Amino acid sequence: MLVAAAALLLGGGGLAAVATTALAGNSDPEATAGHEHTTAATTISCPDVGMKLRQVPSGAKLQVSKGLATLDRQVHDAYHQWMEGGDSEVLSRLKQKRASTIGTMADAIAKNTSAQTDYLSKLATCTTKPTGVDGADSVKSTDGDGSQSQYYWQQQQDQTQDQSQDQSQDQSQDQSQAPQPGQDGGQQGQIQGGPSPEDFADITSVEPNAGNPPFAAPRGDGASTGTFTTECGRNEEGHFNSDNVIVTPGVGNGAHHTHDYVGNKATNGFSNDRKLAESDTTCNNGDQSAHYWPVLRKLDGTSLDQPGAGRDGNNGSVLTPSTVTLQFRGSQVGQVQAMPRFMKIITGDAKAFTNGTANANASWSCTGFEDRQLKDKYPICPDGSEVVRTFAFQNCWDGQNIDSANHRTHVSFSDQDGRCPDGFTAIPQLVQRITYDVPEGQGFAVDSFPEQLHKPVTDHGDFINVMPDDLMARAVNCINNGQNCN
């Protein structure tokens, strides 16, 4: 339960909401230290250029990568200005900067291919989005040319989410408690915003909505019922960075939030396939794959003046997972085939709060309650129960590409019956499960891009398959023959 009070602060044409939260019944003043915070009434919402890319030739990849990182930095800076009381001119300037950056990216693509790039020029305009729990309110914003446009936030679920629901992959709708702005440890210039009290839910009040156990291997006639589990540790070695090697290779701090890594020890923004293949690993059996996800932070008022941390509005102490389980499972309708080495998969959407839920795939729960999965809430777990994050990855492959321009279209989810889309074939489905011992009454939040306000719906996982071919063949054999291997 949360006790929350809100007031409006007006200044300089900007609008912000102040929310104060505390866990009811918590009599320990230290337990709620740092839990007073402010959240923005609106955030900045821009078209996701990376998600819209149709083709990126090899000769344009670095320029496009740098452009995507620049676009994120521009939104970061504009959001900071907005939070400091900026007015509609913030959006006008942002549009001009984005148009220039997008134009440079389009030129690089056009120079290396005959593909049309005119569609990219339409993605420069940003607007604002209300930060309410349901996002149903509309908000007027200047679209950069002086006119007023009406922005409507639409809660939508696409086929991907429907499929993951039907496969017992329901995902995060929870919880209570939040701070983040106002917790910068006295440092100046820290971005403020999120999470909000409405971003949390008591797991005991959630009705069962998933399988028991959820994310279990397929069963029944015709299914490939085996599993293959790889052991890679809990990041005991402290492998962290704020890079994004899949989306923005060749760029530092491309994620604007800190990633937690297990597996391949060389993974950073500058890792190419050769470096990954030559690297040591924390996994057993010589599995050099890279697994990573945004860190989870305890909102204890601490802040580090570093990229991906305090400089990007990610404050608090990083929580070390209690357990990390990495398991591959089969198909409901037949055998799976091997993943190609160096295949890259992203599941979930780090910008789902402003992009919408088409690619969202967050799943939050508590140990002992995993038949209750939350999509856009953090769970409040009872005493003795740990927070659980689960990522069930895409399980269908186009049979040709190890990646795609938007890092999405080369893979897909099967339908509710387990069938892949036409032209796709079943591959082992990776399920990443991470648990955390979060003290009862302690606020926490996932790292995010600043304008995403640490919303739980933005949680996501990343995977680069660097299994040796013989190990992948062993995994496929185990899965197809109904064995449970590790």
UniProtKB/TrEMBL annotation:
Q: Does the keyword Ubl conjugation apply?
A: no
Query: Which residue ranges are recorded for the region named Disordered?
Result: 127-241
- Domain DUF1996: start-end pairs: 246-465
Q: Does the keyword Signal apply?
A: yes
List where this protein forms a coiled coil: none
Q: Which domain of life is it from?
A: Bacteria
Instruction: Identify one Pfam family in the record.
Output: DUF1996
Low complexity biased stretches: 145-182
Q: Kindly indicate where the leader peptide sits in this chain.
A: 1-24
**InterPro entries assigned to the protein according to its UniProt record, in alphabetical order:** DUF1996 (IPR018535)
Q: What keywords tag this UniProt record?
A: Signal
Q: Where is composition skewed (Gly residues) in this entry?
A: 183-192
User: What protein name applies here?
Assistant: DUF1996 domain-containing protein
